[in-house]
Amino acid sequence: MSTNTETQNCESKEPASQEQQSIQSNENTLVYSPDVDIAETETGIDLTFDMPGVDQDHLDISIDKDVLTVVGHAEVDQEEGYESLYREFGAGDYRRAFRLPEYVDSQNVDATVKQGILTIHLPKAKRQTVTVKAV
Questions:
Q1: CB 96 within 8 A of CB 31
Q2: Is the dihedral of CA 37, 123, 41, 113 positive or negative?
Q3: Do residues 72 and 94 make contact, with C-beta atoms less than 8 angstroms apart?
Q4: Is 32 exposed, middle or buried (0-12, 13-18, 19+ CB in 10 A)?
Q5: Confidence of residue 91 (pLDDT cuts 50, 70, 90)
Q6: DSSP 3-state assignment of 68?
Q7: pTM for the complete prediction?
């Protein structure tokens, strides 16, 4: 996981640097930039995010102009009677933003989440033809 909060190009495949692993927000919660795999198919672009601890009730996916933003929140359940001595997975927020290519049909985006894996399908817009009428 990393914490790059800048908008990236959806087609960029550069890994996040080590300095981008996690940052503190104003509320003293960690903000992570989740790892993501991006694949292009004939029908669109598929993004697969690794967001452990996040379920559909704690996800916000939005598209504003040509920017896809994914925000999630994870909480760690602490069993009664147990105190953590060491933990590598913690509670915190996830945030990642991508600039979308022009050919994405942003009106028909589909998203699913299962066991902390978020999958977003960005369909390609269908080519439109215009019928020319004689006057």
A1: no
A2: positive
A3: yes
A4: buried
A5: confident
A6: strand
A7: 0.72
